[in-house]
From TrEMBL:
GO molecular function annotations of the record: ATP binding; ATP hydrolysis activity
InterPro entries recorded: AAA+_ATPase, ABC_transporter-like_ATP-bd, ABC_transporter-like_CS, ABC_transporter_ATP-binding, P-loop_NTPase
Membership in a protein family: Belongs to the ABC transporter superfamily.
Domain ABC transporter per the UniProt entry, residue ranges: 4-229
Claim: Transport is one of the keywords in the record: yes
Pfam families according to UniProt: ABC_tran (PF00005)
Keywords assigned by UniProt, alphabetized: ATP-binding, Nucleotide-binding, Transport
Protein name as it appears in the record: ABC transporter
Coiled coil ranges: none
Gene3D superfamilies hit by this protein: P-loop containing nucleotide triphosphate hydrolases
């Protein structure tokens, strides 16, 4: 059974498109990234999965259960971290977390204290005295305290300093070892690259691609830098070159195709220097976004 199975999921806010006909599935136990620029539809997809808003058409199942009809059952085994967390400021962290925990059968006080401790969160403090980053940590503990088998995280690391991000990622990896499935949205490519097994790239409400992180890195994309002899004044066109940038005698581009063909084309130009690198994921993604 899939942890998440999304079929032709569509959400319009009256006439405004949120997401349209999106399809993907997440395997049990995987860490799945959902990446796209602002306004791409990430939060819309997540809020639909959680049944905070209704699909306009299409649907989805979470561990075989329908997101609209069986939302109560689904809530028991999902942990959710919203992109922004709001709390009653007057409460102590401890009281808030214990109150939230009571809604779940599997709540265990020692367990939530352990997570809070690993994130260096003082549960005796009042929420109003916490920094943004510490409030985020409260949200993280809240999402984890009932040992959910699926974690849905909407831009989870915003506001966390790099060390905290590190401990947060360690917790996620630990959870994955225990069999938890993690679905998280982000527009930070670095963290997706570090954490995820697979990633769906979303833009303008549609999924552009679902790929294994490894495969994304090993696509035939190459980043090519060349410098030409200074007396070379003709225009230079290379078949298969994308995102071409020229600066005097220097030129750089992304190349997607056969290495042999690239070398054959380049052989006819007066090259002074050449460097071929693997592009960063960022560059590969930018290419998808620009399409
Ligand atoms: N409540 C709403 N009413 C009307 N339009 C909305 C609403 N929520 C989102 N939208 C629109 O739906 C589209 C997708 O937005 P969404 O918030 O899902 O994107 P996102 O990828 O989560 O972006 P971000 O990274 O900025 O949170 C955008 O065009 C947005 O303006």
């Amino acid at each position: 059974m899939k942890a998440i199975e999304v079929t032709n999921l569509t959400k319009y806010y009256r006439k405004v498109k949120g997401i349209e006909n999106i399809n993907f599935s997440v395997d049990e136990g995987e860490i799945f990234g959902f990446i796209g620029p602002n306004g791409a539809g990430k939060s819309t997809a997540i809020r639909t999965l959680l049944n905070f808003i209704y699909p306009t058409s299409g649907g989805a199942q979470i561990f075989g259960k329908d997101i609209v009809k069986e939302t109560k059952e689904i809530r028991e085994f999902i942990g959710y971290l919203p992109s922004e967390v709001h709390y009653y400021d007057d409460m102590k962290v401890k009281d808030l977390l214990e109150y939230s925990g009571k809604f779940y059968k599997s709540f265990d006080k020692d367990y939530y204290k352990k997570i809070a401790h690993s994130l260096d969160l003082n549960i005796e403090r009042k929420i109003e005295d916490l920094s943004f980053g510490n409030r985020k940590k409260v949200g993280i503990v809240q999402a984890l305290l009932h040992k959910p088998k699926l974690l849905i995280l909407d831009e989870p690391t915003g506001g966390l300093d790099p060390l905290m991000q590190q401990s947060f990622f360690e917790i996620l990896k630990e959870k994955q070892k225990e069999g938890t499935t993690v679905f998280f949205s982000s527009h930070y490519l670095g963290e997706v690259q570090k954490m995820c097994d697979r990633v769906a790239i979303i833009k303008d409400g549609s999924i552009l691609k679902v790929e294994r992180i490894e495969d994304l890195r090993s696509t035939q994309f190459r980043k090519v830098y060349i410098s030409l002899a200074s007396d070379y004044k003709q225009d230079l066109t290379i078949n298969g070159a994308m995102d071409v940038k020229e600066d005097g005698e220097q030129m750089q581009f992304l190349y997607n195709g056969e290495a042999r063909e690239l070398v054959q084309q380049l052989a006819s130009f007066p090259l002074r220097d050449i460097r071929i690198e693997e592009p960063s994921l960022e560059e590969i993604f930018m290419h998808y976004y620009e399409k």
